[in-house]
Amino acid sequence: MRSAVADLRLAAEENPSVADMLPAVPAGSARIEDLIQRGPSAPVWQPLSSGGRACGWTEL
Questions:
Q1: 2 burial class (0-12, 13-18, 19+ CB within 10 angstroms)?
Q2: What is the pLDDT of residue 55?
Q3: What residue ranges of the chain have pLDDT lower than 50?
Q4: DSSP string spanning 21-59?
Q5: Gap between the Cα atoms of 58 and 22, Å rounded
Q6: Could you tell me the pTM of the whole model?
């Protein structure tokens, strides 16, 4: 999961439109298995804007 999030961050940084959007619009990544098992409010989301720890979608 860490490498997938790192790849998404890199792709976002390389796209000027996305890079401009990320500070204003929260974005994150989660495994579908975790979402199904624990739900979207569980701390399964990895924020793309920072190296922060997993959180619920409302905390992105």
A1: exposed
A2: 93
A3: none
A4: HTTTS--EE--HHHHHHH-TTSS-BEESSSSPPPB-GGG
A5: 15
A6: 0.72
